[in-house]
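User: Here's a structure from my thesis project, written as structure tokens. My advisor, Dr. K., wants to see whether a designed sequence matches the one we expressed. Can you design one independently, without my sequence as a hint?
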């Protein structure tokens, strides 16, 4: 199957050819015909599967073939984070580059002036984060009266981030009869609840990319003492000459501290997280993309929507509490058919996090020890041998993970 099977407009096919896409991905094959046929769609797909083009191409197609250049806001795409908004905006701009469809973007953390000027000039499609969108609605710089298509991108993350009220307030201002598309990495209960109130007779598309993750990404797990994680991270990047590495931490503080310490180790690093200004986040991301910075240290939320072409290495300095975030994290690499390596560092007290990931993915991740960085077995005491409660394990993981100077108290060695 190729893109011309969808009878897309030549201006879109030209953009697809320029993007060097040979054939549609699974999510595109399934979603594009449904969206073109005006169905509401509920699609489960991770970032990295080509989901943006899966909704952007049919949306652009409908605008250019039905009512071109109206420059009245007809399509609203909601994203949880500014980074994802930028990414989606960029994709729309790329796919629509040979058309005269006007695309706008609105997100918080920056002045509204430029965004308002753009809105006043007239746009067909707006990509926005919920908070800024509501600000613009309240100040009457925007109306949703003509919306024909509403897209929720990464709806699960939107709910995780507490945008439920904002979503309700936004959907109340959109007329009935619109087409609604909901993309989510998971179909958790809350997503089903949300879908019931906003989708009408939706077609369900599910892309099972759990195995895809296992196939395309080499997953390595190193057992290491908590207080040697930083040293090991710098050593891996330096000794293996990895040029561009995305490193994940659970907390902003840990990201900041790690970036500082790794830079001292000679691995130029910057942190990216929600407490950084939009300018600082963009600067860090650009320097990373340009190769001026070797390691980008990110929290899960900040990393949403980051698309770095050809990223080959991800390090989980700390495993996430939510096993599904692991899939998102390692999905930053091995995108669009490339291969990648994901290294996870696990210290004592964090094994349960690894187990949750193994259960979710239905795979076994064997823990290895890197010579010179083996966990210190002399630290095992009698009390350490007792199985830890989940709560204690979580507290232990929290304290050892976010304060890299504190030594992990024991090690149980290889898991299997
Ligand atoms: P997404 O899941 O939308 O974040 O897309 C992930 C990456 O896949 C982006 O870098 C896209 O440019 C790329 N991509 C999207 N569709 C295709 C395709 N059909 N063939 C190759 N790459 C694609």
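Assistant: Designed independently from the structure alone:
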């Amino acid at each position: 199957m190729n893109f011309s099977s969808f009878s897309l407009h030549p201006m879109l096919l030209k953009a697809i050819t320029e993007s060097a896409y040979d054939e549609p991905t699974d999510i595109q094959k399934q979603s594009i015909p449904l969206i073109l046929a005006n169905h509401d769609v509920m699609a489960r797909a991770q970032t990295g599967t080509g989901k943006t083009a899966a909704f952007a191409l049919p949306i652009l197609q409908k605008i250019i073939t039905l009512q071109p250049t109206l420059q009245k806001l007809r399509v609203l795409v909601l994203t949880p984070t500014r980074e994802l908004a930028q990414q989606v905006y960029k994709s729309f701009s790329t796919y629509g580059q040979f058309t005269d469809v006007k695309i706008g973007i609105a997100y918080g953390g920056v002045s509204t002036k430029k965004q308002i000027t753009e809105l006043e000039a007239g746009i067909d499609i707006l990509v926005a984060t919920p908070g800024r969108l509501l600000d613009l609605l309240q100040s009457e710089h925007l109306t949703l009266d003509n919306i024909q298509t509403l897209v929720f991108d990464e709806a699960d993350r939107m709910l995780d981030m507490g945008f439920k009220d904002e979503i309700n307030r936004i959907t109340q201002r959109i007329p009935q009869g619109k087409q609604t598309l909901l993309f989510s990495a998971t179909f958790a209960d809350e997503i089903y609840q949300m879908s019931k109130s906003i989708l009408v007779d939706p077609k369900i598309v599910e892309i099972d990319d759990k195995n895809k993750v296992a196939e395309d990404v080499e997953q390595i797990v190193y057992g290491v003492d908590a207080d040697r994680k930083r040293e090991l991270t710098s050593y891996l990047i330096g000794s293996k000459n990895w040029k561009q590495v995305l490193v994940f931490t659970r907390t902003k503080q840990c990201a900041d501290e790690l970036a500082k310490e790794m830079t001292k180790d000679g691995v130029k690093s910057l942190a990216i997280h929600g407490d950084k200004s939009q300018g600082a986040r963009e600067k860090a991301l650009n320097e990373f993309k340009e190769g001026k910075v070797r390691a980008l240290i990110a929290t899960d939320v900040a990393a949403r929507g980051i698309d770095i072409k050809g990223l080959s290495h991800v390090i989980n300095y700390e495993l996430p509490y939510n096993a599904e975030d692991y899939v998102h994290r390692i999905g930053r690499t091995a995108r669009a058919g490339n291969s990648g390596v994901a290294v996870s560092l696990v210290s004592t007290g964090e094994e349960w996090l690894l187990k949750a990931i193994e259960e979710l993915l239905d795979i076994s991740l064997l823990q290895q020890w890197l010579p010179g960085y083996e966990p210190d077995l002399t630290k095992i005491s009698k009390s350490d041998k007792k199985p830890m409660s989940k709560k204690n394990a979580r507290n232990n993981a929290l304290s050892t993970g976010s304060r890299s100077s504190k030594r992990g108290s024991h090690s149980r060695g290889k898991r299997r």
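When you compare it with your expressed construct, this may help: Confidence is low (pLDDT under 50) at residues 381-416.
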